[in-house]
Design brief:
Blueprint (H helix, E strand, L loop, with lengths): L6 H6 L5 H17 L4 E6 L3 E7 L7 E8 L5 E5 L20 E4 L8 H18 L10 E6 L11 E4 L1
């Protein structure tokens, strides 16, 4: 699946409100435009849908991600290693060990310029975490998990752009 092929994403988003779907698809386009060479990792489970952009097929090498939660329909735009990013305006939320995010209730309020700077930092950080350059992949969408299927029996679906 490439950026243009949205059938799986649309199916995973069916249970969300139209406004939420619009925000998620807009954020997806934003991330793809910045790093078209990255790989999109999709995790769909019972409580959330997560889309991440990674330099490999590993979540630990994520540049940025979108998470949308079924219970409250909140949309996060986040960074797996957000605790390592310079955030001078202190807009990132989260007090966990590493993940930081912003809530995106409306795409008009999304701080594109500021987030773009954070994404560039996150890209450099992700590349620095890759131990073996052979792990680096480009331009693939990989469905890592789908609700209702056990992970150990679900092989990642890799589709070239």
């Amino acid at each position: 699946m490439s950026k243009e092929q949205t059938k799986d994403i649309e199916q995973f988003l069916e249970s969300f409100d139209k406004e939420v779907i619009d925000i998620v698809m807009w954020l997806r386009e934003f991330a793809w435009k910045l790093y078209p060479q990255a790989n999109e990792l999709i995790y769909e489970n019972y409580n959330a849908l997560s889309l991440g952009w990674s330099v490999t097929d590993k979540v630990g090498h994520n540049i940025c991600s979108i998470a949308v939660y079924r219970a409250n329909q909140n949309v996060h735009f986040g960074f797996y290693w957000g605790n390592e990013l310079s955030d001078p305006d202190h807009i990132l939320l989260g007090e966990g060990v590493q993940y930081r995010y912003i809530l995106v209730p409306d795409k008009k309020k999304f701080p594109k310029v500021y987030i773009t700077k954070l994404i560039h930092q996150a890209y450099a950080n992700a590349l620095a975490k890759v131990k073996d350059p052979k792990q680096i992949m480009q331009g693939q969408t990989i469905v890592k998990s789908i609700a209702g299927k056990k992970r150990e029996k679900t092989k990642p679906k890799i589709v070239k752009k």
